[in-house]
Structure formats: C-alpha cells, structure tokens
Amino acid sequence: MAFSLFKKWRIVFYTTEMEHFFRAKNLLDNEGIAFRDDTLVNQQRDVQNRLAGARVYGRTNYVKNFYRLSVKEEDFGRAQAALGKLKYF
Fold it and tell me: What are the residues whose beta carbons fall under 8 Å from the beta carbon of 52, sequence distance 6 or more?
C-alpha cells in the first residue's frame, strides 16, 4: 500500500498555448484519466526594461507560460490515444 504513493508520472502533453492546454485537460478528464498539471507560469515575474536611461518595470509580450500535463505510467498509452483526438485549428 505504501508504494502506491510513489507512482511514476510521465509527461504526455506540453504546449505554450492555453487553449490547447485546456482542450487536452478536457479530453483526459472525459476519458477518466487522472492527470497532474505542471504549469510553469512565467508571466508572474517582472521583466526589467530600460527606457530613456530610466528603469521601467513591466511585462513584455514575449514571455510565455509552459503548460505540461503528466499522467501515471500505467495510463500513458490511454492518454496518448485520447490526446490523438486533439484538433488544432
């Protein structure tokens, strides 16, 4: 029983597009596949810019978030099959 706490997780989906991420989450949820969200949120950090010799802190449009979904090792094949239905347009 104690070993069930240490199941191995594998990355099954990775993107920088939020819409694709939520579509993938919905597909896994509809298939009943447990997943873990390992999103790296880069937009929360401040980006330092120089403007006319002064330091201006703000956000830039080139900072992206990295969305990643992981599934348990035994669900990896099912998750790949489910995500094969994902349509990008």
Answer: none
Task: Return contacts of 78-81, CB within 8 angstroms, 24+ apart.
Answer: 78/31, 78/33, 79/12, 79/13, 79/28, 79/31, 79/33, 79/35, 80/12
Two tokens, residue 62: 């080139």
**Digit-coded pLDDT (tens) for 19-51:** 999 999 999 999 999 999 988 877 555 444 444
pTM across the whole model: 0.70
CA 5 from chain center: how many Å? Answer: 22
Closest CA to 37 of 65, 74, 3, 6: 65
What are the chain's domains? 9-83 (3.30.70.1370)
